[in-house]
Amino acid sequence: MKSRFALTAAALALALAQPAFAADKIALVVKSLGNGFFDAAHQGALEAAKELKDVEIIYTGPAKATAEGQIEIVNSLIAQNVKAIVISANDPDALVPSLKKAMQRGIKVISFDSGVKKEGRLMQLNPSNNALIGEKLAKMSEQVVGKTGEIAVLSATAQATNQNIWIGEMKKVLAKPEYSGLKLVSVVYGDDQTDKSYREAQGLFKSYPNLKAIVAPTTVGIAAAAKAVQDEKKVGQIFVTGLGLPSEMAGHVKSGAVKSFAIWNPIDLGYSSIHAVHAFMKGTAKGAKGEVISLGRVGKATLDENGEAAMAEPFTYDATNVEKFAKIF
Ligand code: RAM
């Protein structure tokens, strides 16, 4: 009798410890794990989940930034019955079939940061306006190079949706008469891996002895290129610019390898993505043109005809402010 009572009490205690309802699972699928940019986005996602109360975040991604790795993950998330997938895609096309399958099973899918084609998601949340980012990259290059000189791009993976769009926008700006002196000599890919990005930067030094700047529209690439410039004693000869995290770039600004770089707040991006997908989970968003989606403390986003919405303008960092923001992301 005694032991039976003990068991009942234990079962009761366990039942009381469980939440009154099971939180819905949202999977945040990033390009690859170990990238500080996505760690910051994850931080924001957790903040949103805490506010929303009825969801929990599964943070996942492949070891290397490949579409194949993400497809495997998406398939296993379908099997796990997650309620939503928020993905930064390694390829605009390759993920579409598995994401479509997820949506057919009732899973709400949105992309953020690096998008997938319209048919593979309900919306794409861009960190900023793509044309603005392209212009920013061209302007920052001109600031360190001057009116004439050779520049090269060190990108992430060759299939990355976001980097390819930004490079395309940057090329449009460089094609304008006022930029005719800036010569884009090469675009190389470090695959968002530090060691490969570092080697690609070294390769550029060798192939282009007159190179004046490396523009890296990736937080992994810009940090690796700046380190290569420092290690090979090319500070003052080759400047590095692009999109970076203040926490990873402060030392490189100090060394002089980097004068300025830009980025948006990755914490806010992750936070906003969870709010956006939550609206689809609750049925208040459907993905139609003109729909206004609440992004919690960040504000609102309006969907365009492609189901895309953009957040804030990229912010520029240099010696005057990098230390302050390095403490945040
Ligand atoms: C890297 C990733 C990410 C991109 C940033 C700027 O961390 O490629 O997708 O948005 O750089």
Tally of helical segments: 11
**Which ligands appear in the coordinates?**
alpha-L-rhamnopyranose
| Mean of residue pLDDT values | 94
CATH 2nd-level architecture of the largest domain:
3-Layer(aba) Sandwich
User: Could you say what the CATH topology of the largest domain is called?
Assistant: Rossmann fold
Instruction: Classify the helix fraction into a percent range.
Output: 40-55%
> How does the helix and strand content classify structurally?
alpha/beta
Give me the Rg, rounded: 22 Å
What is the highest CATH level, the class of the largest domain? Alpha Beta
Distance between the termini: 58 Å
**Overall form:** elongated
Poorly predicted tracts of residues: none
CATH 4th-level superfamily of the largest domain: Response regulator
- Proportion of residues in β-strands: 15-25%
Strand order of the largest sheet: 2-1-3-4-5-13
SSE string, helix = H, strand = E?
Answer: HEHEHEHEEHEHEHEHEHEHEEEEH
Number of strands: 14
What would a concise description of this structure say?
By secondary structure, this protein is α/β, with parallel strands linked by helices.
Please describe the structure with a list of short key phrases separated by commas or semicolons.
binds alpha-L-rhamnopyranose; Rossmann fold; 14 strands; single chain; Peripla_BP_I; four-stranded parallel β-sheet
Structure characterization notes:
With 329 residues, this protein is α/β, with parallel strands linked by helices. The protein has two domains: 24-128 and 266-312, Response regulator (Rossmann fold), CATH 3.40.50.2300; 130-263, Response regulator (Rossmann fold, 3-Layer(aba) Sandwich), CATH 3.40.50.2300. It is built from eleven helices and 14 strands. It has helices at 2-17, 36-52, 67-79, 96-104, 130-145, 161-174, 194-207, 219-231, 246-255, 266-282, 322-326; strands at residues 24-29, 55-60, 84-87, 108-112, 124-126, 149-155, 182-189, 211-216, 239-242, 261-263, 292-294, 300-302, 308-310, 315-317. The protein has a six-stranded parallel β-sheet with strand order 2-1-3-4-5-13, with helices on both faces. A four-stranded parallel β-sheet has the order 7-6-8-9, with helices on both faces. Strand 11 (292-294) and strand 12 (300-302) form a beta hairpin. Helix 2 (36-52) crosses helix 10 (266-282), helix 3 (67-79) packs parallel to helix 4 (96-104) and helix 5 (130-145) crosses helix 6. The longest helix is centred in the N-terminal third of the chain and has 17 residues, at 36-52. The N and C termini lie far apart (58 Å). The structure holds alpha-L-rhamnopyranose. Alpha-L-rhamnopyranose binds at residues 31, 35, 37, 88, 113-114, 156, 162, 192, 218-220, 243. This is Rhamnose ABC transporter substrate-binding protein. Its main location: periplasm.
